[in-house]
């Protein structure tokens, strides 16, 4: 086996990517309790909400309130999605210290998701990122549909590399190469992420997988073998994008932590505490969550019926 990193960073996206697709409204207090439990689990990075158009993502229309009331947990950095200047204004008003801009590697998806082509989105972000950095707000960037686009099919790895480079050129400190519909295989990861890493610093690349076809953990292993040390995941395997047909939940944080613990790779995250956090959402939504560890622990706790 190839040498593996001794430790790595998990970016918890449950409160944002996880909840954005849930049609049933979740009370702001429940979201804050979810975030508080996630923060207690040892996660150091939590994406808390999204300053997008409330009509685009009604579930996260309470972004300003969530951001203002975020638990002051030492050692946790919170971030939130920002698509444009209006989003940045709201994020600043709410006191965010880290934001994430998001584009795609395919124009059709970018148009559906943010009503801009990839080039238009990069032109929109440049002044937004500059204004954020000037205020000491740090910036992450997402590139969606890096492997397969739900509208265009296979995506060119050179295009992914180019979009990532253009984000880094703006001063963004981390780019998340994202498999929005969860279609990638480890071979895609080796090829596309390998291509990105030819020109971008390894420590600034994050990988963001969804688990639609059950390939997410295999893709993490491919990423580890490429030397990537930052991975996104969502508590319980919640998640999906309403603008990406066929997208299902994110890789579950509990499943990622289990595998890494077992491999002797340090994350500082307590799996049981993440399970407590995701169980709060399961109880609120009155349904089982897709994560494997979530199902196992929930059955063991005699809690197979989350409606109880
Ligand atoms: N927050 C709140 N309102 C916003 C906003 C933001 N970030 N950006 C724009 N608006 C408002 C404008 O003020 C304007 O309002 P008005 O009509 O009252 O003047 C209206 O929205 C239209 O603005 P425009 O710039 O033309 O936006 P748009 O209609 O082209 O939508 C986005 C672009 C990016 C705002 C929208 O597509 C969006 O929020 N997408 C997010 C999708 C998403 O989150 N997907 C999941 C994550 S991968
Ligand atoms: Zn996602």
Give an overview in words:
Strands 1-2-3-4-5-8-9-10 form an eight-stranded parallel barrel, surrounded by six helices. α8 packs parallel to α9 and α10 (253-262) runs antiparallel to α11 (271-285). It is an alpha/beta fold. β8, α8 and β9 (205-209) form a beta-alpha-beta unit. The protein is built from twelve helices and ten strands. The protein has a single domain, classed as TIM Barrel. The model has no long low-confidence stretch (mean pLDDT 95). Bound molecules: coenzyme A and zinc ion. Coenzyme A is lined by residues 20, 50-53, 56-57, 83-84, 86-87, 90, 102, 113-115, 144, 241, 243. The site of coenzyme A has 19 residues, from α4 and α5.
Radius of gyration: 18 Å
Give the % helix. 40-55%
Number of helices: 12
CATH class group:
Alpha Beta
Q: How would the blueprint of this fold be written?
A:
Layout: E1 9-12, H1 14-18, H2 28-40, E2 45-50, H3 63-68, E3 77-81, H4 85-93, E4 98-104, H5 107-114, H6 118-134, E5 138-144, E6 148-149, E7 153-154, H7 157-169, E8 174-179, H8 186-197, E9 205-209, H9 216-225, E10 230-233, H10 253-262, H11 271-285, H12 292-300
Parallel strand pairs: 1-2, 1-10, 2-3, 3-4, 4-5, 5-8, 8-9, 9-10
Antiparallel strand pairs: 6-7
Helix pairs in contact: 2-11, 7-8, 8-9, 10-11
The structure holds coenzyme A (COA) and zinc ion.
Residues 20, 50-53, 56-57, 83-84, 86-87, 90, 102, 113-115, 144, 241, 243 line the site of coenzyme A.
